[in-house]
Design brief:
Helix content: 40-55%
CATH class: Alpha Beta
CATH architecture: 3-Layer(aba) Sandwich
Radius of gyration: 18 Å
Largest sheet: 7 strands, parallel
Order of helices and strands: EHEHEHEHHEHEHHHE
Oligomer: single chain
CATH superfamily: NAD(P)-binding Rossmann-like Domain
Distance between the termini: 31 Å
Mean pLDDT: 96
Number of domains: 1
Low-confidence stretches: none
């Protein structure tokens, strides 16, 4: 595999399983050293071990991004360990399927605190470090000659339209798209690229949870809700985690240096805007 991001340092949040782990492994295969920023310490350790088998350095870092006070120490540790941060993948998130009229304030905060609030403050902390790495002359010139950092936020196709059974999740993911655009404008003078991906249906633990919760609401059998969603996909298959990872890797590579403020749907054609 071509190593487009050789010796770059990447933080991948939620990298202990699912899409986050697939992204971490893909970036490692393309030459990056990886910080596995993961809530579950055991998953973080296992993912780091898998990354090391690819010949790259890996730092497992247990962190709860819903507690934003934990974010600056993580950035400090990464800089101490690796000397810099070149890439941030804001993947960590949580989902819940529940009718709009039944949502509680606790439901709302639990989903939004990680998917939106934690994502923003992780982006902010890492962006400050990326800016500090830009040479002083470039910072003063208001024009950077090449990219000085890549940030990729995980949105969702749920952020593209209404979701009456996941209103809080859809709202948080719509906010991610807005945050991506605002950050892209704020960081453009330093040529730090900020983009997002919007995955669709993929066989991850989150989708196992969605399938189970929809079964409880609608009385469907295990796997039925997931299969019904797959039937709505123009390409007629769920995404493999590697499909999402490939799109993220592109947005982290020099091939995307002239792309910023965009949200790329990686969903087999469900959304086409």
């Amino acid at each position: 595999m071509e190593q487009r991001i050789l010796n770059k340092v990447a933080i991948v949040t939620g990298a202990g399983q699912g899409l986050g782990k697939a992204v971490a492994l893909r970036l490692a295969a393309e030459g990056a050293d990886i910080v596995v920023a993961e809530y579950n310490p055991d998953s973080a350790e296992q993912a780091a071990a898998d990354i090391r088998t690819l010949g790259r350095r890996a730092l497992p870092y247990p962190v709860d991004l819903s507690d934003v006070a934990q974010i600056p120490p993580m950035v400090d540790r990464v800089v101490t360990e690796f000397g810099r941060i070149d890439i941030l993948i804001n993947n960590a998130g949580r989902s819940q399927t529940k009718p709009l009229l039944d949502l509680t304030a606790e439901d709302w905060d639990r989903v939004v605190d990680t998917n939106q609030r934690g994502l923003f403050f992780c982006l902010q902390a890492v962006a400050k470090q990326m800016i500090a790495q830009v040479p002083e002359a470039v910072r003063q010139s208001d024009r950077a000659p090449h990219s000085f950092g890549k940030i990729v936020n995980f949105a969702s196709i749920s952020g593209r339209s209404g979701r009456p059974y996941a209103t809080h999740y859809a709202a948080a993911k719509a906010a991610v798209i807005s945050i991506t655009r605002s950050a892209a404008l704020a960081l453009a003078r330093y040529n730090i690229n900020v983009n997002a991906v919007a995955p669709g249906v993929a066989p991850t633990q989150m989708w196992v949870q969605i399938d189970r919760e929809r079964g409880e609401i609608f009385g469907s059998k295990p796997g039925e809700a997931f299969a019904n969603f797959v039937e709505t996909i123009p390409l007629k298959r769920a995404a493999a985690p590697e499909d999402i990872a490939a799109a993220v890797a592109f947005l982290c590579s020099p091939d995307s240096d002239y792309i910023t403020g965009q949200c790329l749907n990686v969903d087999g054609g469900i959304e086409m805007d």
